[in-house]
């Protein structure tokens, strides 16, 4: 291979060869310019990975014209310096290119959804959130190009749209996704670690009073159908909304009054047994057997129109500022008021980590089934009493709505509830 002193004029004067030729620089050993039969000139560096006799490695710096001679010489010096530190710059460059192609955000996100989120009860909701808020913004990016500032800007943009709760949820989901990337050795560390939540979260503590609970259940009965049954069973069992909405007839043993939730439908992926009180059985007896689902409009899929039905329920009951999940909190709080032990209530709610902790939690495997049955029977009887006590002279307007609280006169008595048109 020819050796010349590389200068701009010398490179410009190099002829086009019949075969690929490298002209090595006399001033910087291992640095040269490759000329192809098509006249293309490319700066390269050549070094050995170890001592004499070790494997030669070629490092492509860049094409002449796009890269100046000075820039190429500086790059070659950096390559040789890295080699002296025991590194292999050419291998690092190949790995970097591979990672950029193989570790794009979209591919990793879909792998995360398939391998990790598919096991989550909220997989659909979180998948849509990540695809919409993260996947769309970082489309075409390599996961290695994402920095802490990118995470902050993405989450801040969501908060500026007036959705602070959504911004918090997106950040939590992104952190989980990036930690998964770290565990898969795709990333060395997560760029989202240390990023604070954009808005302060306040834990909900809404517990419905007896009067409010009675009005909600009475209004749910007035609505009837799948939604009315779901609301009343939520209040009587304390289970989660999606668990009750997806209830299927084959999960029920009506003879023994037992509902067995399979692990595929529980939040903690553990099967769960729920005793059905007399009051819960009465709700199920009102349901139509149109198909496999207990609470369904057509029987082919679970009831899902919760938003519109909740608006109607609030109108009928006159109770506002609450969520269906508050019925779960109200149930366990009410049972505590009846003297039911916290560890029994935890078992009823199917909490993975309850009041029994530490060493006792490791060895405690008792299910407290009889205690749970007694607790739900007592709670069902108590709900019966507060409904009976709510009043017999509540008057509804012509649309079936309860009048405002200020205009309502609730008469306590033991007789049946009469829904009288105003």
Molecular structure report:
The chain is an alpha+beta fold. It folds into three domains: 3-100, Double Stranded RNA Binding Domain, CATH 3.30.160.390; 105-183; 219-383, Intergrase catalytic core (hpI Integrase, Chain A, Orthogonal Bundle). It has 16 helices and ten strands. The protein has helices at residues 8-12, 69-84, 89-102, 105-115, 123-135, 148-160, 164-183, 210-223, 225-237, 241-245, 278-285, 306-317, 325-337, 342-349, 358-363, 369-389, and strands at 3-4, 21-25, 31-35, 41-48, 56-63, 252-253, 258-261, 272-275, 395-396, 420-421. Helix 9 packs parallel to helix 13 (325-337). The model is unreliable at 354-366 and 403-422 (pLDDT under 50).
Helix-strand sequence: EHEEEEHHHHHHHHHEEEHHHHHHEE
Distance between the termini: 105 Å
CATH class of the largest domain: Mainly Alpha
- Count of separate structural domains: 3
Q: What percent of residues are in strands?
A: 5-15%
- What name is given to the CATH topology of the largest domain? hpI Integrase, Chain A
Q: How many E-type strands?
A: 10
CATH superfamily of the largest domain: Intergrase catalytic core
Question: Largest sheet at a glance?
Answer: 5 strands, mixed
